[in-house]
Every structure is written in structure tokens, then in C-alpha cells.
Amino acid sequence: MTAPAAPVTRAITAPAPSDSQPPLRRRRKPNLFSTLSRVLIALIVIVQVYPLAWLFITSLRTEHDFATGDPFALPKAITFENYARAFETGNLGMNILNSFIVTMGANLLIVLLGMMAAYALQVLGFRFSKIVRSLFLIGIIVPVQIALVPLFIDYSTINLLDTYPSMIIPLAGFALPMSIYLFSSFFEYIPRETYEAASLDGAGPYRIFGLITLPLSVNTVVTVVLVNSIFIWNDFIFANTFVLSEELKTIPLGLQNYIGAMGKTDWTATFAAVCVTITPLLLVFLVLNKAMIQGLESGASKG
Amino acid sequence: MLPNRSRLSVLVFLLPPLLLYGIAVLFPIMQSLFLSFFSWNGISDMEFVGLENYVRMLTADDIFWRSFFNALGYLAICLVLQLGGALLVASLLTSMRRGRELIKTLYLLPAVISTVAIAFLFVRIYSIEPVGLLNQLLHWIGLGALERPWLSDINTVLAAVSAPEGWRFTGLYMLIIYAALLSVPQELEEAARLDGASRWQLFTKIRFPHIMPVWITTTIMATTYGLRGFDIPYLMTNGGPGQSSELLTTYMYKTAFTSTDFGYASTIAVFIVIECLVAVGLILFMLKRKADA
Description:
The complex is a heterodimer of chains A (303) and B (293). Chain A has 303 residues and is mainly α. Chain A starts with 5 loop residues before the first helix and ends with a helix. Chain B is mainly alpha-helical. Chain B has a single domain, classed as Orthogonal Bundle (MetI-like fold), CATH 1.10.3720.10. Chain B starts with 6 loop residues before the first helix and ends with a helix.
């Protein structure tokens, strides 16, 4: 994509001392443009990233420094006390563990069930597959808030309120359509001959699923897991509605405990807690950002 | 279709996902629809009230209309920041030759942070005592007159709670649009450039029409996400001060879980769903008309 363009752009921006008339204009304009666009990009990136850096810097400030100083200034002294207080006030370890359990559980359902549905829709095929597909499409458009009241009522009748499944079920359910869609579009690329050959050898639909479809889908599984993990790890609305007890609180709920816990909010400790809780996902993101970016791109651009 | 498949095997693969989806999504939608015709506080007997909830919502509830227009304002700000910002950065990025990957990663960073963390962060950014980033910045550039407590000023609070949501996801939409821009055939752009097309013409006549399908998808995504926005306003102001940052979603949530008026909350929820469907329909309709014209 970029390769054929390279010689042209190089020719335009090459520092040529000659001042022949028409090409000069052409040469200067793109330079001005690219300088401007670089400045603009830098500004926008600062707006995107600086608040996060500030969050981290603030978590290392002393309380006094935070309350009185210039917010942009570097801290006068670096302290880790905020982190100590953050761990004292809350149950960060437990919150992280809970988020981990919910993320794993929901991802397991999303991947397994998404793959199965896509297999039935795309590979096996059946008469009403169009209707089923459009049924799943509903879940992409409909906002999650519609399910809050009904699920709350249903959970309280079957005693499922305040459990891990109460969070996992809606998180997985609402993420399922996108997962089915991603797997379906991947299964399209597996040549039909592969299946036909396996069928001729006597393999049934279950063996084909286990021996051909499943092993080939590893990359799509990674994509689906990465993309969904961002949303599940950070889910606030389902956890806030269905979970009450401290032992089950996920990170977003745990963080809320820091606000006004003792009448007055200890902001530096809160920021330290925020830093601790965003670290796991941030690390995964920074290490796997290529795969994640690719996943996010493919998730929507084929729609 | 696989030759050796049986009806049973289709069911084996299809039933478990349909079951989960039914329990979590389809059945609750039906239930909400059903509940919206009842008056119920969760404890006493349910009372069928017909269309009363709908009539009350549309004709007698000022807070509902206030929230509705607030939600439209919230949506507008999110769309401008997300789609406008995304298109701008994606276009600029294609003209860069180095550092693209780094910028993509940095730009996407806020999308990984939880809404609770973002809400805390922005509460401090907007604060005036101790002075937060925004007010300090205004002071420096000589706009000190604009300094204010952004979240308790009823004129600014809606914009103040919308901006973080826009900020959060603009990187995501940028990625999608950027990927689409890269797929614009290079020969086409070359040819236009040789014909003397300006950058602006290149963009409006070639690039943008080419990414139109992706642009539609992105617009629909951003709109439906904008209409269901909840976390950040709920966490930052809980709809206040007064109702000045109340959205339909936060109003519905409070009606359900603070006033435990399950019937009326379901009516609002049904309205939010209809609103999303209408929005998607409108986008498709407008784009189709534009394409036909």
C-alpha cells in the first residue's frame, strides 16, 4: 500500500537546491502541510496521553503538594505513601482477582459459544439461518440498559443476584453477536474443499469442528478475547447493578469505595489505586497492541 | 453446507449460544416491553395500567424531556469529538511516514482505561479548588475569565460530562477509519494528483467517497454507543446539578433502582431502544438519499 507511494513523496520532499519555477510551489506546499499536520498530531496526542501521565504523576505527589501546588508542576518530592494508603483503604487484590474471574468466565463463553454458533450458521448451514443471523444482529444495536431491570428481577427470583454469573451472563450475552460475526467472517475463508475432503473421509460435523475449524481459528480467538477483555474488565453498569457484597466487587466498583469513603476523598491515594488497577490491562495492551489494534480494526471495518 | 451434517448436529451447535443469548438479551427485551405496561415497585402486586406509562412519559414528565434533549446534546458532542477527531487524525496520519504505529497506540490508550478511572480523572481536571488542569491552562493562556467549576455550573456541566466519553473512544474510531483510508487505491490518488487535484479535492472527491461504507458503520457504532452512554455522567455528576446533566439512561437507572418504579423505568428503557433503532434508520436513510442525489 505505501510502497508505490514512497518514490513519489520522496521526490516531492527531497531537498533540491534548484529553484525552477513551477515545481518549487509544489515542493513547498506539502512541506508546510506536513509540518502543520505533525504539529496538530502532536497536540492531539498530548491531549490524549497527558491526562494519563498526570494521573500517574499525581499518584506520586504528597497530599500537601496536591492540595496547594500547580497541577502541571512536577512533584516536589516523590512518595509511595499514596500506594500504601490505597492498599489499606480498599481490597485492590481481591478486586483485581474478581475482575480476572469475570473476564475469564465471560471470554470462555464468548469464544466457545460464538464459535459454535458461527459454525452452525456458516459451515453447517440450515434453512432458517438468515432469521437467526438477524436475531443476533439485534444484540449489536440494542443498548444494554434494556436488560438491567428484567435481569435484576429474574436474578432475585432465582437467587442469582450478587454472584459471578450475574455479571458474566449479560456481559457474554451482549458480546456474543460480535463474536459470532467475527468467527463467521473468518470461517468464510476456510475453503469448502477442506470440509468436503474431510467429509469424504467419513468425518462427521463434530470431528470436523474439533480437527479443522477449531485449530484454524486460533488467531480469531485471540482477536475476540483481546477486544472483549477491554470492555469486560472495565464493565461498570452490570457489576454496579447486580453486585452488592464486598467480596465480589470488581475493579470499577472497588475504585468507587475510595470516593468519600471517610467523608473526604483522599485523591492522591485514589489516583494510586487507579494506577494499580489500570496496570494489568495496560501492560497487556502495550505488549499485544499490534494484535489488539488489528482486532479492533477488523471488528468494525468489515461491518 | 456440510454433506454429512444432521439436523441434530445443527441443534447441538446452535442451541447453547441461542440459550445464553436468549436469557441475556432476547428474553429481557420482551420482559421490558411487557413491564412497560404495568405499574410495579417490585414488592406489591403488579398492576396493569395499559398505555398510562407511555402517556405520562410523553406528556407529563418534564424530567424525561429534559433528559432526552440532554442526551441529544451529549450525543452531538461525542460524535463531533469521536468521528471528527478520528477522521482528522486518520487523514493526517496517512501523510506521515514514521511513527504511525506509535501514534496509533498512544491514541488508543484511553480506550483501555475504565470509566470509573476516567470519571475520577476528569473530576480533578475540571476542579477549581485545588485548581485542576483545565482551569490552570485557561489561566495561563489569558482566558482566566473562563475559569469555573465546570461540573457545578449548569451551563457547562453537560459538555463537561460528554467530553470524556468523546475523548475515550476517538482512538478506536480513528483506527477503523485509518485502516479504511489505507485501502484507498494508490493509483487513483496518483492519477488525481497528476491531474492537479488539491489535497482538499483529493479528500472530498476520492478518499471520502471510497471510505463511505466504513464511515457509515462507524457513524452507526458511535451513535448507538453515544445514545447508551451512562457510566461517565452517572459517576461524575449523577445527573446533577438539578437535572442539567441527566441523560435518559441515568434517569432510567434512577427510576428503576432508586425510586424502584420498575414499570416506568421499563417504559423509558423501551424508549431508549426505539431511539437507537430510529437513529440507525435515520442514518441509513439520509446516506441513501445523499447517495441517490
